[in-house]
Write a structure and sequence with these properties.
This protein is 35% helix and 34% strand. The chain is α+β, with helices and mostly antiparallel strands. A six-stranded antiparallel beta barrel has the order 2-9-12-11-10-13. The protein has a four-stranded antiparallel sheet with strand order 6-5-3-8. A two-stranded antiparallel ribbon has the order 1-14.
Length: 293
């Protein structure tokens, strides 16, 4: 019985010794596994990397014109409505022509009168000059007739200029489309009295066969961009991105936002893109060299 405490100690330590033996065996197996791992190597190389620049903006029309009358008067006819496609030179609206036609007729008669007076002055000058050469009339009389001739010639020039101006005003009563486009607003109807001074627009026409996307990028990126830099445009409502490039790179930096305006042109022959659409532009500047693994 006196050896019982020693026996109990031995029994207590046996499981722990067995555990230590198992851990040793496990560590040895793990080392064998580590020795079996293969190591791969690769070379370091120089490669061109493109860092895209993303910016947002909107679609705008290539041209947008609010067209006003060219002469004073009552609007007699408006030939177009919102949504109409118009071509260069197509009539848009007309100011009442009666007063301008009467003015042209009056000035045509004034021109005829001036021509007749000049013809009479020429005959009188030639006759007086002939008499002066024969010393029949005085030099003073010849000078007086020459002055009348010069006055008649000046009157003819004024009559001609007035008639040209009146005819131009008559032509200006009919206002035509300045380019191929679409009517987006009709602001005045027939019967409205308008003057050139008030500059009230009658219709609005925009050019849509070509549109632009305007975005702004940080001025810090300006050195990486140039005219012709490739871009991809994602526009709301379009199922596919559109390829484009920088068309205009504004030289002015906004002092408040420290950004630069960029314009990207898009062909829009089918008129599917509309001004005001949201657009996201991904710009691809020139690649930079980098060391990669």
């Amino acid at each position: 019985m006196k050896h019982l405490p020693l026996l109990m100690i031995v029994l207590f330590l046996m499981p722990q010794l067995a555990g230590c033996s198992g851990e040793a065996e496990t560590s040895e197996g793990h080392l064998k596994e580590l020795r079996a791992i293969q190591i791969f190597t690769t070379s370091v190389r120089k490669e061109a990397i493109v860092d895209p620049i993303v910016a947002t903006g909107e679609v705008i029309a290539d041209k947008e014109t609010r067209i006003t009358p060219r002469v004073d008067g009552v609007i007699d006819h408006v030939y177009v409505k919102v949504g109409d496609k118009v071509q260069l030179g197509q009539p848009l609206f007309m100011t009442r022509q009666a007063d301008f036609e009467n003015r042209v007729m009056q000035l045509e008669q004034s021109l005829n009168l001036a021509e007749a007076e000049l013809a009479q002055s020429i005959r009188q000058f030639k006759r007086t000059k002939s008499l002066r050469e024969r010393d029949v009339v005085s030099q003073g009389r010849l000078d007086q007739v020459a002055t009348g001739y010069n006055i008649a010639r000046a009157k003819l020039g004024i009559a001609q200029a007035n008639l040209v101006q009146a005819r131009q005003a008559l032509m200006d009563t009919l206002v035509t489309a300045p380019y191929d486009g679409v009517v987006t607003a009709r602001l005045i109807d027939e019967g409205k009295m308008l003057t050139v001074i008030t500059t009230t627009p009658v219709v609005e026409v925009i050019k849509l066969d070509i549109v632009e996307v305007i975005v702004r990028v940080p001025a810090s990126q300006l050195a990486r961009l140039s005219t012709g830099t490739r871009a991809k445009l994602d526009i709301d409502g379009m199922t596919r991105p559109i390829e484009s490039q920088i068309h205009v790179l504004n030289d002015r930096v906004d002092s408040q936002t420290r950004t630069v305006e960029i314009r990207l042109r898009i062909d829009n022959s089918d008129l599917s893109l509309k001004p005001g659409m949201f657009a996201k532009a991904t710009l691809y500047p020139k690649p930079r060299d980098a060391i990669v693994v």
